[in-house]
Amino acid sequence: MTPDWLGAFLIGLIGAGHCMGMCGGIASMLTIGQTQPSKLTPLFYNFGRLTSYAVFGGLVGGAVASISEVSELNNALTWLRLGAALFMIFLALYIGRWWQGLLYIEKLGQSIWKWISPAGKSLLPLKSPIHAIPFGFVWGWLPCGLVYSTLTWSAVSGSTLNGALIMVAFGLGTLPAMLLMAFGATYLHKLQQSQIFRNFGASILLTYGLYTGYGALSLLAISW
């Protein structure tokens, strides 16, 4: 396990309260037209969601690595890693509720989402629990500052595989909260909303972001 995988997992785990707020309505959408909803439906939905994250990460990681290799810009990934560190800092400030600037970045994706969301809605009502997989894949594209922040780490991962694994690690971090929400548990949501928990998690992410940013700046200083 690399530090970036661990960082991505922590983003998902600590920021899952945001995911629960954004995706809370989806749980009810999954049961539309079903008199006896299957307990497998949330599992299939989240499998589709994590698959979409892996695809995002793989595409971004592979594309940036290829461009960097072809262009022979030795400092390109270092600059991008500095940008990823800044996103981590923004995310920490957002989770701690110290600064909400990440929401402006999140809004940038809404113009694209309006073209994607009809594909997900066309799958409703779900004909069977397994149809929740493509539904979850589409809804994985829902504009989310946490996803965008983690994608910046995929961009500097250096390969398609690493980019995909970073996003999978993020998805696994969100999984406990999303599954518990789907099965009606509320105590974890209360924990996620605790200011003590948020401050603790935000402090960890802020420290990691500053550490990564310092490392990137040190490499750039050497190259200069």
Automatic annotation (TrEMBL):
Classification via Pfam families: DsbD_2
Transmembrane domains' residue ranges: 6-32, 44-67, 79-99, 130-151, 163-188, 200-222
Record's keyword annotation contains Thylakoid: no
Superkingdom of source: Bacteria
Keywords in alphabetical order: Membrane, Transmembrane, Transmembrane helix
InterPro entries registered for this protein in UniProt: UreH-like_TM_dom (IPR039447)
Domain (Urease accessory protein UreH-like transmembrane): residue spans on this chain: 8-210
Full protein name: Sulfite exporter TauE/SafE family protein
